Structures are given as C-alpha cells and as structure tokens.
Amino acid sequence: MGRLEGKRAIVTGAGSGIGRAAARLFAEEGATVLAVDLNADGVAETVEGRDRMTAEAGDVSSEEYVADSIRNFVDAHGGIDIVFANAGISGGWVPLSDQTPDYWEQILKVNLIGPFLYVKHASPHMVDQGAGSIICTASVAGIRANAGVHPYSASKAGVISLVQTVAYDLAGTGVRINAVCPGLIETGMTKPIFDMARGKGTEDRIGQINPLKRAGRPEEIANMALFLASDEASYVNGQAFPVDGGLSAS
Ligand code: NAD
C-alpha cells in the first residue's frame, strides 16, 4: 500500500527537476497525479509510460488557466487532496542597478502569485472535503540572504509568508499548508552553475560550503514533499522546512 494511496494530486513545475521527481514519486506511492508545466514536452516526458499520471501544459501565473485546470481536475476525479505548487524561475543574476519593475514582476508572477492562485482555487475544494495538503516550494534564499538574486529571494520569502498566513485562513478545516525550502539542488534551473563548474573542472568545489559537502538531488526534496502530502504529516502545518544539507544552519 502506497503512502498516498487513493489521493488526487496536482504537481506544478513537473516538467523538470524537483517537480518531475515529486510527481513521479507521488504516483509511485499510489496517487493520481496531474503533472503541470509550461514546457509541454518536458511534462509529457515526465508521465510517459507511467501509471496514474497525466500531463498538462499550462502557465501557473495565469488565473484563468489555474482556475480551469483545478475545476476540470475536480470534475474528473471528484475532489483534490494534494497540491504541490512548485513551479518557479530564477530570473538569473542581474546587477541591482539594471533590475527593472518588469524583471521583478516576471519573477513574482511565477514564484509567488502562482502558489497564491493554487491556494485560492484548490483550497475551497479541500475545505469542502474537510481534508487536504498544500505544499509550496520556497527556498533557503527566502530564509537568508542569497546575494544577487533580489526578486527571487523576495518571492521565496513571500511564499513562506503566504504559507504562514494561509494556515490561519484554513484553521479548523482539516486542510494543511506547508513550504519546503531547498538548498542547492542539481536541476534544470541550476544547470548553468553545474555546467560552468564542470567546464572549469571545479565541480568538486560545488557544495563544499554545505555541511554535507555536496549539492542535493531532486529526489531528496520530493521525499519531503511526499511526507508533507501524506497523512503521516497530519499535525504539521504552517511551517517552512529547509531541505538543504544543513546550509541554512551553518
Ligand atoms: P527546474 O527549472 O528544473 O524546474 C522548474 C519547472 O518549472 C520547469 O520545468 C519550468 O518549465 C516550470 N515553469 C516555469 N515557469 C512556469 C510557469 N509559469 N508555469 C508552469 N510551469 C513553469 O527547476 P527546479 O530546481 O526543479 O525548481 C523547482 C522549484 O524549486 C522552483 O520553485 C525553484 O525556485 C525551487 N528551488 C530550486 C532550487 C535549486 O537549487 N534547484 C533551490 C531552491 C528552490
């Protein structure tokens, strides 16, 4: 019996990295999973040949898309038990003096407004059911300074605040909300960092600042998301959990 047997889940940013690992893990643990990503090919690859998984191309920053997608999912499956609002973009490294309001807006729309839209449109269904788990991907960058990525860090601090605040809206409903805060994980987002280091032969140095002396793997974040999604986390609510090898404690 899987840890998510019979549960119905939406995972965003599931065309790559952490979202792909989590969507596959949730399905392996018995959930019916809708895998969502802007990248249609990526998300199709995530579900290919797998049981209980469907792919959908969509933009998490579009309220029209998110509302329709959740409504269709609930109509098809009779409810929704889990949302992993994980899609995100880094925005790259741009000097402060070159940053524009458009640049900030682009990042906040995906990283912060995206999770807000999933909370807004999925939680009423969960409240009606009297149960549900929402997990949002924040970052260690939202807990402590990550030099040079101002809007990214601000968006992730915003996600933590969203989770803490919404926990009050959901008080007494049986619906839980938490955030996971990854450290440096090798994914599509961080590929340029790893590629550059490999090109210079300095890949051994990546992760040396970390107490575990290595970067993380997407599956290691997916495992935390699985725990938070499952009934094992029935008394875990309104929290933001670093999964970072100890980076934020060092
Ligand atoms: P990734 O680039 O491998 O995956 C992110 C996915 O989100 C991509 O497939 C992308 O197409 C999708 N996406 C981007 N914008 C979207 C949109 N508007 N609508 C739908 N999908 C969209 O990166 P990842 O590292 O797996 O990132 C997953 C989450 O983890 C992000 O929120 C990221 O900020 C967070 N995170 C990553 C790290 C890391 O080191 N990789 C560290 C901390 C937090």
Automatic annotation (TrEMBL):
CDD domains: SDR_c (cd05233)
InterPro entries: NAD(P)-bd_dom_sf, Sc_DH/Rdtase_CS, SDR_fam
Keywords recorded for this protein, A-Z: Oxidoreductase
Single GO molecular function: glucose 1-dehydrogenase [NAD(P)+] activity
One Pfam family in the UniProt entry: adh_short_C2
NCBIfam families reported in the protein's UniProt record: PRK07231.1
Family: Belongs to the short-chain dehydrogenases/reductases (SDR) family.
Protein name: Glucose 1-dehydrogenase
Source organism per UniProt: Pyruvatibacter mobilis
